Amino acid sequence: MKPLGFPKSHRLLKPSDYSRVFNDVQLKVPHRNFLILATPNHQGCARIGLIFSKKNLRLAVQRNRIKRQIRESFRQQDHWPAVDIVVLGRQGLDKLDNAAVRLALDDMWRRLKKKHQQSCSSSSNDKVRGSG
């Protein structure tokens, strides 16, 4: 059974961690209510950071509900590649119920993993072509 914790090693903690993702975005997964930015890391595990403004989610209870949903969805995913992920909230997010948020996140995680696999396979193909 998978452990139920969410340790600090799986979170982006410092501003420099966030800046590294923003300055070197290699994977982008857009959605009507979210935007996921990601870049590979050398930590050996996926890490996540969350950014939600008061402009998009007025009440703290709304921001906290969405953050809980994202952390739980992230934690339950299997086989994460070693990437740093930043999830940004967009307008209209406060109108979604928990089930809709979960469906959107599951789809976005799937798309992120697919894009990561494609980028890894294309970079390995470039290395093979370039070495000859």
From TrEMBL:
Keywords: Endonuclease, Hydrolase, Nuclease, RNA-binding, tRNA processing. One of its GO terms (biological process) is tRNA 5'-leader removal. This is Ribonuclease P protein component. Its EC number is 3.1.26.5. Consists of a catalytic RNA component (M1 or rnpB) and a protein subunit. It comes from the Bacteria. GO terms for molecular function: 3'-tRNA processing endoribonuclease activity; ribonuclease P activity; tRNA binding. PROSITE patterns: RIBONUCLEASE_P. GO terms for cellular component: ribonuclease P complex. The keyword tRNA processing applies. It catalyses: Endonucleolytic cleavage of RNA, removing 5'-extranucleotides from tRNA precursor. RNaseP catalyzes the removal of the 5'-leader sequence from pre-tRNA to produce the mature 5'-terminus. It can also cleave other RNA substrates such as 4.5S RNA. The protein component plays an auxiliary but essential role in vivo by binding to the 5'-leader sequence and broadening the substrate specificity of the ribozyme. Belongs to the RnpA family. HAMAP family: RNase_P (MF_00227). The gene is rnpA. Signal peptide: none annotated.
